[in-house]
Amino acid sequence: xxxxxxxxxxxxxxxxxxxxxxxxxxxxxxxxxxxxxxxxxxxxxxxxxxxxxxxxxxxxxxxxxxxxxxxxxxxxxxxxxxxxxxxxxxxxxxxxxxxxxxxxxxxxxxxxxxxxxxxxxxxxxxxxxxxxxxxxxxxxxxxxxxxxxxxxxxxxxxxxxxxxxxxxxxxxxxxxxxxxxxxxxxxxxxxxxxxxxxxxxxxxxxxxxxxxxxxxxxxxxxxxxxxxxxxxxxxxxxxxxxxxxxxxxxxxxxxxxxxxxxxxxxxxxxxxxxxxxxxxxxxxxxxxxxxxxxxxxxxxxxxxxxxxxxxxxxxxxxxxxxxxxxxxxxxxxxxxxxxxxxxxxxxxxxxxxxxxxxxxxxxxxxxxxxxxxxxxxxxxxxxxxxxxxxxxxxx
Length: 395
Ligand SMILES: Cc1ncc(COP(=O)(O)O)c(C=O)c1O
Fold this sequence. Notes:
39% of the residues lie in helices and 13% in strands. The protein is α/β, with parallel strands linked by helices. The strands form 3 sheets. The chain has a 7-stranded mixed sheet, with helices on both faces. It has a 3-stranded antiparallel sheet with strand order 9-12-11.
């Protein structure tokens, strides 16, 4: 960073903003690569497959056809229609296009939900360990973070009685995420029904982060929005990043009551103006076109999960539950007797395996590490060998 003479006076709120450690570990891993080290990247949460060819073609064609200008803040009508039809079918609810807001990735839906709904003094319940942007944004808007611990002994499904005990008159928003980042945990249909019963008819909104809902290895996804009386109190967050391997395209969306959607569109007008229009045309092809590629990806992630979990369970000090969704494994490392962050750093520096400390996902992540399985089986096996060698030397 270049130095300047004048002191940078930041707004106070900037001190409350968190981060996503995966990107920082990626930077360190890339620096090691520049020194000639061979790194196996199990830190970042993105599919390693190419975006399906039909989607790429649609995007390129859209560029040639002049989709290079501003579009409506809430998204192109054709994409909002395609998404409304898909979400209606998959969740068994009525969805109209004016209940869909298209944004650059899933993340802005988290940002907009907190900006639009929570203020100082409001309480927001969210999973811990969980996607770090929830806690970051809750703090940023000045609301009170109320973590709900996810425990290994429950296969990282939240405990509904515990959730019920955390709901107060100040609870404004409850964030759910299934399949879950970082644990791969999945709530069952009856869990979702129990969560709905715990919320009852209170005026609480639910942000249901369903970005991994197509990466489920058993059963069917079930959204709280499908429960009678909950659609109007739910913001479904999902998108294209994980399902269609489109992380760099920046395309995601929220589904919510239309009056709230109009408010999200105002936030879009004030921040991004709109999502890239050619990207949205590619999104129409992703939703309406052939679905065999995402299904192939899902099966491939299942194969990799099986290889990695069985391998890591052979390694001294590590034990890992079988994740039921997403492309993450979250092994318990307590028997290594190393703190998570120190272990993650040592594995990166000494073996070239980049993983994340469980604490990157909140304080309840201590004693765990997250390894993404978005890498080839050969690389996963190589990573397992390196970790095994390391533990033989150090434990
Ligand atoms: C749980 C969860 N929600 C939202 C996102 C954001 O996805 P996007 O890259 O589309 O912004 C991620 C990305 O890692 C995630 O893991």
